[in-house]
Amino acid sequence: MGKNRFLSIALLAALLAWVPGAAARAEPEYIRLHIVAASDSDDDQAVKLCVRDEVRGVSAALLADCQSASEAFERLNAASEALRLAAEMRARREGYEGSVAIELGVFPFPDRMYGEALVPAGEYRAVRIILGEGAGQNWWCVVYPGLCLPEDNHGEPIVFYSSIGAWIRRVFGGGGEAE
What pTM was estimated for this model as a whole? Predict the structure, then answer.
């Protein structure tokens, strides 16, 4: 009985050591995209959304085969002027005449849900496009991994699955859902 108890404790200890490590490896790093409108006018908000669509499309092509957040951020940094020019050209097509600036850095973001996936509040590497004075409402998402890139799923909702989350639900029961 002593040997079985030792094996059970050793197995439990190994499992407890493995689960947090697996959870840490499963947690992706995020690269955010942030578009800030010139003002809250209807026209400036419409331009912001058009610029968003343009930059999302360019970002999707740029990041299609990235294997890590660091690689994604390096690509975005290297292409920052191309991203700015794409945003500016789209803004001009929409009749916007103000400035279009780009910043890459680490910025604070609030909690955000993407379907059932929560990206918690925190400081994230991001590409920020600022229209004019940047005094209007903004829009943000995650470009790596692509939680906001144009979907290639023909309107089907994106479903997120976490094997660790499923295991925890099986062991400890459902619950724990965000409201």
Answer: 0.68
How remote is the C-alpha of 112 from its chain's centroid? 9
Tokens of 3: 């040997």
Question: Residue type at 123?
Answer: E
Q: What pLDDT tens digit does each residue of the chain (179 aa) get?
A: 556 554 444 444 444 444 444 334 345 689 999 999 999 999 999 999 999 999 999 999 999 999 999 999 999 999 999 999 999 999 999 999 999 999 999 999 988 887 788 888 999 999 999 999 999 999 988 889 888 755 443 344 434 344 555 555 666 665 444 33
Cβ count within 10 A of residue 167: 13
Q: Label the pairing between strands 100-109 and 122-131.
A: antiparallel
